Amino acid sequence: MSVWCPSCGFESPDGAPWCDFCKEPFGKKPKPAPPPNPLAGLSKEQLLELPAETLLKAEEPPPPSAPPWLRPLTWAMLVIWLALGGLALWSLHSRYSEQHPPAPSGSARPLPNQ
Length: 114
Prior knowledge:
mainly alpha
């Protein structure tokens, strides 16, 4: 039997503490639902009558979460950029070493007289 990751949908072996693909822990307690906003059902006129402290204390909705496929895509893009950067550095190094061969080790060049 296997466990399906709720975050990315990858199949991991049964009893695994986290997903083998995205490393999201299994058995994570779900976040409690936020309390309902008491200002949600009020009209504009009723909101204008409320004191400013009440409006400032009202909770904002949580920010939207990223889709589950975004994490593996981000890691893949990072690997591609690092590979391209390494390839570019290797190319520059090989061109430099072709243009500037190393000096022979046994021959010392005499210093010019001043």
